[in-house]
Amino acid sequence: MVNQISVLLVGIGGYGNVYTKNLFHGNHESVFVKGVVDIAPERSKFYQEFKDKNIPIYDSMDQFYQENQADLAIISTPIHLHKEQACLAMEKGSHVLCEKPATANREHLQQMIETRDRTKKKLAIGFNWSFTDSIQSLKQDILAGEFGRPFRMKSLVLWPRNADYFNRTGWAGKKYSPDGEMIFDSVANNATAHFLHHLLYLSGDSIETSAEIDQISAELYRANPIETFDTCAIHLHTKNDVEIVYLASHAIADEHRPKYTLEFEDATITYHPEGERGDIVAKWHDGREKVYEDPENIHSVKLDVMIEAVRNEKQSILCGPEAASAHVNAIFGIHQSVKDIPKFPKHWIAYDEERKLTTVQGLDETLKQCYQQFCLPNDLGVEWSKPGKIVKF
């Protein structure tokens, strides 16, 4: 008989709907939702189903833990709440799966690690790809030296996001919460955070760590009326001597699947998906190839891994705070690189009333050119470009 695992869902709107769907309608017969914490649960697509199943709904985690205990707490709440909620759950005896990013505050990340170590609980950060078999296989091959030493990586993510996206919540695009907690919600710290983390994770020296950043510089821009940025071009070097360029924007008209290129001494690895699917292809200089399955369409693996880790103390969680720390440091570094985020010049900006979408003329082509040439817009001499300062770690 498999032990039943009790789950507390903290946040059931937004991405919390994905976890709820997996728990209610996936293959998790030995897992049950013991309670829900959400200040506006009616926003969940599954609100009526929670009611029908008589799952209690609480306004706060304190209320839940006064009456209950849970084996696993899944946290899908705003960025600035992650540390407090994750630490509380671990203090109350729950393992934690916290949605990405871990936090925007480097000190908060350290507190999460210290709480995990003291309580002996497991803490996973939900960067989807890092939990998949294909990415684990790829990283194991990298660590085994199958491709030689990595020396250069680049990624491009062009994902349009309209006014509804930026107005979906009071913290969207904000630097700080009303009580002064760091949010730094942006294209790099939310929707496309996975893909910046991914390059850092693949550069890491062990299966559960990402590469440490040596220095970073950035160009950050905004076309939408937000405090942070909807477009970024990031250039960084890791302490293990990998150079990375990361390019992403919400201020473009057409959506493209994320892509990347990883350059090694003996091989080049590309992820250039077209349509619904795109495998990761490693090509050695001698003509050999190896294919890794597209990780993008598998979003429940992190839940599966965490459930198994709750059952089995020796089970690795694959992507914990150590793996997520490089992304937290990258967000800190780019905001140090560009403290006053510029707006795109008005004459470059267009607004589509029907789509409620703000775009920047020619931005997609500029970022594609940057991807091809492994550079930032200012290196191309683009009119609106402004370089940020270099930040050393």
From TrEMBL:
| Domain Gfo/Idh/MocA-like oxidoreductase N-terminal as annotated: residue spans | 6-127
Q: Name one GO molecular function term.
A: nucleotide binding
Q: Which residues form the GFO/IDH/MocA-like oxidoreductase domain?
A: 136-269
Entry-linked SUPFAM superfamilies: Glyceraldehyde-3-phosphate dehydrogenase-like, C-terminal domain, NAD(P)-binding Rossmann-fold domains
List the InterPro entries: Gfo/Idh/MocA-like_OxRdtase_N (IPR000683), Gfo/Idh/MocA_Oxidoreductase (IPR052515), GFO_IDH_MocA-like_dom (IPR055170), NAD(P)-bd_dom_sf (IPR036291)
**Coiled-coil ranges from the UniProt annotation:** none
Q: Which Pfam families match?
A: GFO_IDH_MocA, GFO_IDH_MocA_C3
Q: Which domain of life is it from?
A: Bacteria
* PANTHER family according to UniProt: D-GLUCOSIDE 3-DEHYDROGENASE, UDP-N-ACETYL-2-AMINO-2-DEOXY-D-GLUCURONATE OXIDASE
What is the name listed in the Swiss-Prot or TrEMBL entry for this protein? Gfo/Idh/MocA family oxidoreductase
Organism for this UniProt entry? Gracilibacillus salitolerans
